[in-house]
Protein 1
Amino acid sequence: LDAAWAALEPVFAASPYLAGLARRWPDRLRLTLDADPEARLAEILAAADALTAAPDEAKAPLRRLKAELHLLTALCDLGGVWDLDQVTGALSRFADAAARAALRITADDWRRRGRLTSAPDDPRGPVPGLFVLAMGKGGAFELNYSSDIDLSLFYEPEALQSALAEGVEMQGFANRLAQGLTALLAERTADGYVFRVDLRLRPDPSSTPPAVAAPMALAYYESVGQNWERAAFIKARVCAGDAAEGAAFLKALVPYIWRRSLDYQAVLDIQSIKKQIHVHKTGEGLEAAGANLKLGRGGIREIEFYVQTQQLILGGRDRSLRSPRTLEALDALTAAGHVAPEARDELHAAYVELRALEHRAQMLADEQTHILPVDPERRADVAALAGQGDLAAFDAGIERLLVRVNARYGELFEGGEDLSSPYGSLVFTGVENDPGTLETLARMGFSEPATVSDTIRSWHHGRIQATRTARGRELFTRLAPQLLTAVARTGAPDAAFRRFAVFFSGLSAGVQVQALFLNQPKLFDLVVGVMAFAPRLARALGRQPQALDGVLDARFMTALGTDTGLADQVVREAHEAGDFEGAMNAVRRLHREQTFRIGMHVVTGRTTAEQAGLTYTSLADACMKGLAPAALSEAERMGGAFDGAVAVVALGKAGSREMTAGSDLDLMTVYAAPPEAVSAGRGWSAETFYGRFTQRFIAALSAHTAEGGLYEVDMRLRPTGSKGPVSVRLEALEAYYADEAETWEFM
């Protein structure tokens, strides 16, 4: 052992974690060094599969087995005994064994408690109907040295229910089982942990339980599943539980994962997985110090995206391209003529080298890191584990490697629409925030980049009406970078994004609006500017997103003051509505669109304040002309026809044609009628009839309906103020102004 220790001393000096394992269990180190590596691996896997104990008692032996596996794998990797495939295969096979053990132990615990009634040796597995999928790198047998494991738990309701004791609620049981399995593997004890477990690759993880019913999952993937989720399922396989139910579930997903025919928009959406990464000039800013070997430019993710995006596009028609393993799929793409042999050779070698470097960075302290240390001494330790003693040469080699991968990646889907931003990458795939994207959002000026990223990803998940359809999500993939860039350029990104989010979330359907924004970028910039600098207009859009419908009208950008036929349209649509409430709603829809139109002309400097005042007043006049006949018809419906005449008189800013966006209406109604005239139905007097007309007219203007409101109405400038009849007889008005009116009333 002393001789072995001396030979391994440089390795242990570079890796405190491995040195700690060796010192803690010297007998295990001797056993590892003496045994055949494959035989030793088989012993460790067999021990995990044979483990039976209560959950608390099983934690220590399971963690010791993981430590033995780590020591074995590291020594075989660093000593060149195993290649990359053998290293990742050993780690993945142990992850499978650990998941099987955790499920079995947790299930046995529930069986002892009387909640689970199936036999321990049931051929369907520890919990009939429930299965565990290994996803991500674990699913492809490509786990890295200090990887977490992506697991998804599903169950077939009928099979699971049959295995439960009477009265046990199925979803609650499945949730507690998932939590117990996760705790057994991930909880840190004095012996460490087995694997960090990530359950977030299940459908919509923020709103679904940790174990999901298979029918619900299938419905989700078929309706709102995203292309990055399709990519995730390329690697999925059953690793524990009811294998038959798991196989049936994956078989049902085949048409979703491997679509035989893809329209142009779907292809663009798949390509967006790659295009969201900002491609700099080749080699620009690529340094070894601090390089992210997984997510950074020239890193592992670029190779995986290079492969998976082409698999999604081509694999529906060519089964040979469906391998879950990155290098096998790369070979298949080359054999099918989609990747040049020299590109394949370069990416193959780069992938092996990057994965080896990733492992060595993780061996320093068993951390889930993919970043080469910035500190030269720590980076020199990684170089030493890679067999290099010259740090400068090591750094130069890393930089050349990253440049080669980034250049090949930049060739994929060359040309076309860029879905990143001038500020940097904008990647919203996956279940966690992309580090590069958070940096981009910070550069854009957002104070809380993670919140913005979470919001965008929730929209990609179809949690709002605008992105509920596949077409809506595909359009949003293209719109998102333009939105964030436009918001950043306002100089007030937080306010602009917050107000846009209110508006966008309120859309009843998003395809038409998003297509409009994409086809008219100047208009889109205009709307984003409103969100930043015109809070009143932004609030109006947020409350009534339908106001944007007016943009589709050819008259929207017509200069204010030009006769567009609006007044006639308001009167016509109010009349055609058929009843009082219908007339109110019709006028409100047109008012909403025109108010937004005038506001946009003002905000963008297309008109003067004077012209805006005239146009706001003309709009109010049109609304009154449209609603007055409807109010009169209501009075006649209630009281019968009346032989008289009534006028609506505008005062204040409405009278002088100087209204603003927030003006109310100062009005009075004046009527003329024969002294003894009464209504044909109820025999109302003129004062009663025109009083009812005025009340209905005020309600038509000021009441809030499903389409919103119009104006506040003030009738206190009439001779009787707030007292007396609401409508004034013409003779009384003449007498009042002849004998009683104050000077201010004449003004």
Note: The two ends are 108 Å apart (CA to CA).
Protein 2
Amino acid sequence: MVNKSFNIQSEQSQPSSATELWSKKGIMTVTAIVIFIFFFLPVLRLVWQSFQYNGQLSVAHYAKILSEAFTWNMLVNTMWIVIGSTALSLLLGVFFAWLMAYTDFRGKKWINIFILLPFIIPSYIVTIAWTQFVKDIPFGTFNLYSLGGITFLLGISHFPLVYLFTVNVLKRIPRELEWAVLASGGGKWKAFSVVTVPLALPGIIGGGMIAFLSNLDNFGIPAFLGIPANITVLSTAIFQEVIGFGENAFARAATLSVLLAFIALIVTGLQWLLLKKSKATETSYVDEKPRIFLGKWRLSTEIVVWSIVLLFSVMPLFSMVKTSLVKTYGLPLSWETLTLFNFNFLLYDYNKVGNALQTSTLLALGTAIICTIVGTAIAYIRIRQATMFSKLIEMIIAIPYTLPGIVLALAMILAWMEPIPGWNPGLYGSIWILLIAYVTRFMLLQVRGSSTAILQVSVDLEEAAHIAGASQFVKWRTILLPLFLPGIISGTILVILTTLTELTVSSLLWSSGAETIGVLIYNFEQAGYTTYSTAFSVIVLLYMAGLAGILYSIILIIRRKEQL
């Protein structure tokens, strides 16, 4: 009787298990198809286009492009600028990281904010600010519209990346290892060269490679400074090919994009290996206490460092504001030339400014909503079910973020202009292709942010809820979501602020009536309306500050509710 009962129950449970299995397989299949279409297929279309010549597979475009003197001159420009700016980023980043991690420098919390400003502010606004600042310097004639100028601005825009990675690594190096060297008769320099440098080197080089990729990817600075000076790099060459509509423009641009992507992917692979090694040698304990005391040199060091930081992050902004307040570009600021006309014109008379703010805000919020929902779901599966399938999904999602933005933009054009031969859905030339491109590019940011939040919550809580009989909905609503929310929102804020002022992808995908903030500032500057571009940049910075304040206030409110 018991056996019979057991058999009946087993038979009844089989359809349920089979249904659950097929449902799981169906979800996995649909997920794989969606990820393939949106994240991988555009890249394949791009590569395919680069090998198309007269309707046949060929390397003719590569042979032609690589045989041109212009190409090699452009590649030399790219390498000089990227390598030079990365070296500057490393020099500044490591110096400030060592100072903040090891010395008794005062006001570290405040100076951290100013160190990060050149990276937080969009690079094209930093460029506009510096072009105005250089003109106000009473001595010297440093020309920003040159290889040196582009290299300098890229370097100071991305040194915060090196700083963030290096300061983290330095603080995690156990000071006991340094004491051991000192106790065995070695001096401070010996401890620094034998312990500090070898243990910090993987993190420093990893940060340098991230700076290298960011310099390679950057479009705003080379476009604002290089195009007027006839200095071409890979990113601006792709842009000029597409907007030039010359013979085989898309095929040539695709070929250049593959070359640029190839460089980026090699560096990304090296960076991943070095960061993995860095994590293997560091400890989880973060030592915030100073290890080196500056003594009588502390005040002079603080004055010099604050002067450098304010020069890089604040002084150029004052010059930009000053330019935005004059009646005509080139006039000195005085009571006679002071005016608010530029702001009044942009905010009340020129409707494209309001439209650009609205378009960028809607795109940022739409991207954030989609990335928050989908990215958190992917992160949860990746952390809680670390299967080969989930790892593969994360790798595919990482591809669009790893690729330079200008490469992804061209891939989006080729993929969505005619996704199926003979069928044009009308996405290219509309705001929707921007939304697709933003979601594709910035999904990884949310996945990483949500993953960090999920890792901080023990799986035991979920198991306890399951044992108590809680459904999936109840488990998420009452337990998981409240615990995950602050970390998830941090990732969402990063997506919003990154998308809001994006220029590189937008430069190829924008359309009339759907201009974004970055595109409109670029158009002002290229047309010679410097007073308008500076005034709009000031408006954007104030808008970003207000939006960031609102978003972070939401996080504080959520955290206070958790504490109560």
Note: The first strand starts at residue 52 and ends at 53.
Protein 3
Amino acid sequence: MSVCKKLLDFVKRRSLWAHVGRNVTTWSPVGAAFNSKLHRKLDLFDKNVGLFGVPELSCPTGFQVATNAALKSTELLVEKVCSCPPGVQTVDTFDQLSNGLCKVADLADFIKVAHPDPAFREAAEKSCIDIGTVVERLNTNVDLCNSLKNLLDNPDIMAQLDADTRRVAELFMFDFEISGIHLDEKLRKEAVGLHVKLLDLNNEFLVGSHMPNRIARSDIPEHLHIYFASEGSFLQVGGFHADSPNDLVREIAYKIYLYPNADLMKCLEELLRCRYKLARLVGYESYAHRALKGTMAKTPETVMKFLQLLTDKLSDRTAQDYKMMADMKKKLNPHNSELMPWDHPFLTGVLRAERYNIEPSLYSPYLSLGACMEGLNNLFSQLYGVSLMSEHPRAGEVWSDDVRKLAVVHETEGLLGYIYCDFFQRPDKPHQDCHFTICGGRLCQETGQYQLPVVVLMLSLPHPTTRAPTLLTPGMMENLFHEMGHAIHSMLGRTRYQHVTGTRCATDFAEVPSILMEYFATDYRIVSKFARHYETGQPLPESMVSRLTESKKVCGAADTQLQIFYAVLDQVYHSKPQNRSTTDILKEMQQKFYGLPYALNTAWQLRFNHLIGYGAKYYSYLMSRAVASMVWKQCFSEDPFNRNMGERYRREMLAHGGAKEPMLMVEGMLQRQPTIEEFVDALVSELNPNFETFLMDSES
């Protein structure tokens, strides 16, 4: 091809891309906002409004100002609640107190990990510590607790309160009880000491669980050195290298990365002992019993029943999956065909690719970020009457120039809240996709106005260029829909109390809205509305979406069984002490609930960092998926744009946050009381292959 021809083709592509980006009949305003490079006009005379529009936070020192103001307000509210007679005002004042502290702490908790300026991060970290210290003190304030107890112990006054107010009062009391407020002074001090110790142990374990291990270069064949980072005479192993086609690389990475660290082992065992001791001290049979109070599952016994029943129902399919993997390993490496834990993710990928020929790069041109945002906007508009509207942040409002701001607007209710989209890669930014609540929704009794929720969605996507918008893989697109599920949960809730706003609900319920969004993300009736080639405008072929959906079922039973193993291990660790090592427990549970052999001198539990944030609740993902599956099949699978179902979903599940028992919300949506057996059947039925799709793909 001549230089002139290449240049002409390039100009045509650029012209077409520019046309697509400008043409509002092709991209909606929100789609266009995310499908182009952001060019902010900088005006030196613009006033810095502070992070999220909080005036004090125009500079790092403002965190101390905001913290001091919140703590001063806290003192006044504590005085007020301790002196007023018991009634609805008691709960309102408690929520004001919680709201004032959370508005600073939640914002600071985000900024300490997300702001590119170390000075802001350090100031935010100090605010978190200062407010955390005060919260610990408030949770053991006897006078404050008694003001709430006087309310809860008065049946006449409690009978006059609405259901939300009664539940929030009980939740505040639960916070007191788990801090040992009902204990005598000596035991209360012991409880406080255990809380403080656990904070340190949690942090130590989290840091240690991410640290790489190393091995002498001479202990690994020289031709494999290129796969690992060098550190003098050592090689660093910082992960599993699960995608490597080299069996030996995967095995080495697995065994070295999971090699036991004696100090971290002591930390984990001490952490579990302290959790158990604290739970017993405040009146629970185990830490798991304490952690599961108020959840859908309610008790460890229910969780274990769910996990055991799921294991039993999957056993035949799991065995079939392992046989497929073993056959594939034998085909790839006849001299080493035993199936091992380090083979599972790699061989699953090989089998999916062989059967369905899934190549993410073939999908990406159809999944520009703007197209996906347009799809979300269209879906929310049809289901809830809600639109996502791009706004220009004011000077100082955002922590990075590439952050987009969305106003969430209802067709009759008006502005519902704000979503800040921190979607793009930058140095030192956390890589994990996540959702942060910055400010919770709340009805302000003083003014009658509703405090609008504010959230941040954080992803790590490539930046758009002058040649092309940001293009997503199918996995990135599903993650975007998942995180937006959390955001819309916060936006559509209209709780009276901030303490139970949006995603501030039981862990095994909080994931339901986000997982439900994954079903929408893989339904062609929805995908076809937005997935089109960023250059040609051609829609994503339906067969590609079908193949992608079906490919996930390949080895799906084995993947689910692995999650069951993790969830069981989490439950056993947080039950009564076993009087044996955490590694011995892992060996037994791996044999019973996973089936692939334990590798000698490994300690996978030391990399199980979810033990910190999800202690005794790791099962939540599986149970939430079961609920989401039932809601999808019963309410949306026939018509994913059904407005009546969207309104029911908002009314029964999204609107309440944590102000209603989670299982009651599920019952309201399904209009019946589901059983554990039905949850299990919902998960098992998802693994049924679509043989028509398989045959169609085989023939093609």
Note: The beta strands are 213-216, 229-231, 234-237, 386-391, 404-410, 414-424, 434-439, 442-443, 450-451, 454-461.
